[in-house]
Design a protein that fits this description.
22% of the residues lie in helices and 20% in strands. By secondary structure, the protein is α+β, with helices and mostly antiparallel strands. The chain has a domain of 48 residues: Ribbon (Pemi-like Protein 1, Chain: D), CATH 2.10.260.10. InterPro entries: Antitox_PemI-like, SpoVT-AbrB_dom, SpoVT-AbrB_sf.
Length: 89
Amino acid sequence: MLATDMQTNIRKWGNSAGTIIPAPVLAEAGLRVGDAIQIEVVDGTIVIRQAAPVYRLEDLLEATPSDKLALDDEDKQWLHDAPVGRESD
């Protein structure tokens, strides 16, 4: 039996409803407890998929090795140039 062939029940959960997702189904879907998911209805079927990650500039810069942030000579040539379009908008 494939993990996606399992059956479970919908239960009341506060003012909402919920269900248990069996561990084999999570594993087969590549999901883990705590992952963000997106839920939508497609042709009367509930579809759950992993949510697209949301990146913040601060997090990306923090994760970037400092040697990759060093300016080379080409970067330094235009660094202090005046805007030529709508860069400041």
